[in-house]
Amino acid sequence: MSKGEQTRAAVLDEAARQVSLVGMNGLTLGLLAEKTGLSKSGLFAHFKSKEQLQVAVIDRAVELFAERVIRPALKTPRGEPRLRELFDRKLRWDSGDLSLPGGCFFASVSAELDDAPPGPVRDRLVEVELDYADTLATVFRTGISEGQFRADADPEQYAFDIRGVLLSCHHASRLLADPKAQDRARTAFEALIRAARN
Question: What pTM was computed for the model?
């Protein structure tokens, strides 16, 4: 990596940390300059606009999620074991064990941008969320091909249901401070698995 690439990567890491704490709209060049020790003009050399910075921050969060959740889960056996690993790692990501200090970057930013007009930032986030749903559906489909789940089970419905469980857990643990949020999420996950089995 060149010095410029290293600086850009460090800036994006800090920007992702800040977004997890203050939201996408709370991220400013001034805040980032303060946290990184760079000047606003120095930051502007890397990101020509706030919009460009926001898209780059989403991309960095995707890289972190892939590194800490997706890739390790894909090393486990196909089907149900892989689903379990994906679910467990996503719970740990949401709780902050594997993620940024503010918890799940994507849940927070999704709540912030869900009513925003279409544009590069919201469109990139939508693409990321659709990719994650597709990953869950694909992994579930392998459980069908392995004979672990019913042939008539609907992978897209499963992906929808599991994302609902995870979002509910995020809400219960982060906003409501429910100490049983993860236990309840695991109970809901087990019910989904039982319903999908042959």
Answer: 0.91
